[in-house]
Amino acid sequence: MSLVFVPERLRGRVQIPEDNIQRLLEENDQLIRCIVEYQNKGRAAECSQYQQVLHRNLIFLATIADASPPAPATSPSKPAS
């Protein structure tokens, strides 16, 4: 089971702490490494399972990104003349 899973009834109502997002990104890194390893070994069934978890995690992160307010724009600093 993935580290982060929000039930349908709570979606859009829960604030996700940044450390949870960071842990999810780290989990995705490990999933990608496992997927590559299993692909190299020709073990498609195990590879497919990890791909499904990775896909769910990526959709979750994309949903969070879409629901987040845009970050304030920063103006480039002018070099001193």
TrEMBL record:
Q: Which domain of life is it from?
A: Eukaryota
**What range(s) does the SS18 N-terminal domain occupy?**
15-69
Q: Which InterPro entries match?
A: SS18_N
Pfam name, any one: SSXT
Q: Which family does it belong to?
A: Belongs to the SS18 family.
Q: What is this protein called?
A: SS18 N-terminal domain-containing protein
What is the protein's species of origin? Pyxicephalus adspersus (African bullfrog)
